Amino acid sequence: MPDDRIFITRSHIIPEAIAYLDGIYDIEVWQQNSPPPRTLMLEKAQECDALLTEVTDIIDAELLDSATSLKVVANRAVGLDNIDIPAATRNGILIGNTPGVLHESCADFTFGLILSLARNIAYGERRIRAGEWKVFDQIPYLGTDVHGATLGIIGMGLIGTAVARRARAFDMRIVYHSRSRKPEIENELGAEWRDDMDSVLSEADYVSLHMPLTPETEFMIGKRELDLMQPTAFLINTTRGRTVNPRELYDALAGGVIAGAAIDVTDPEPIPIDDPLLSLDNLLITPHIASASRQTVRRMGQMSAANIIAALNGEPMPGCVNPQALGKK
Ligand code: GLV
Question: Which of 5, 105, 137, 250 could share a disulfide with 296, CB 3.0–4.6 Å?
Answer without folding.
Answer: 105
